[in-house]
Design a protein that fits this description.
The protein is α+β, with helices and mostly antiparallel strands. The protein is built from one helix and five strands. A hairpin with a 6-residue loop joins strand 4 and strand 5. The N and C termini lie close together (9 Å).
Length: 106
């Protein structure tokens, strides 16, 4: 069994950073602009953590939230760039955005 709770948290932060970079690009004039709360929109990755066994997959989804994560808004899974810190234990799918495959214990 592949337990990546701590690694997944690191991966989630990396994914959040990448998706926030994408969201910033959307704020260019002529592009779609998200309405913002006082603190601005945040990116929420679902599920937050997961355990993926070797050979198994886990689908992650990204959403924008305008109320600190209480309510999930528009899904951004397809617009995000997904990656992984340690490709030795898991790898993102090339065909399906947000889908990860466990490849080794870690």
């Amino acid at each position: 069994m592949l337990s990546i709770t701590n690694r997944r948290e690191r991966h989630a932060w990396l994914l959040i950073l990448l998706c926030l970079m994408f969201l910033a690009a959307l704020l260019v004039p002529g592009q779609k602009v998200f309405s913002q709360t006082e603190n601005g929109p945040i990116l929420v990755i679902v599920p937050e953590t997961a355990t993926i066994e070797v050979g198994e997959t886990q689908q992650y989804r990204a959403f924008v939230s305008h109320d600190g994560g209480e309510t999930l808004g528009e899904e951004l899974t397809e617009q995000c760039t997904w990656s992984v810190d340690d490709a030795a234990v898991g790898e993102p799918s090339e065909e399906t955005k947000g889908l990860y495959l466990g490849v080794a214990p870690g």
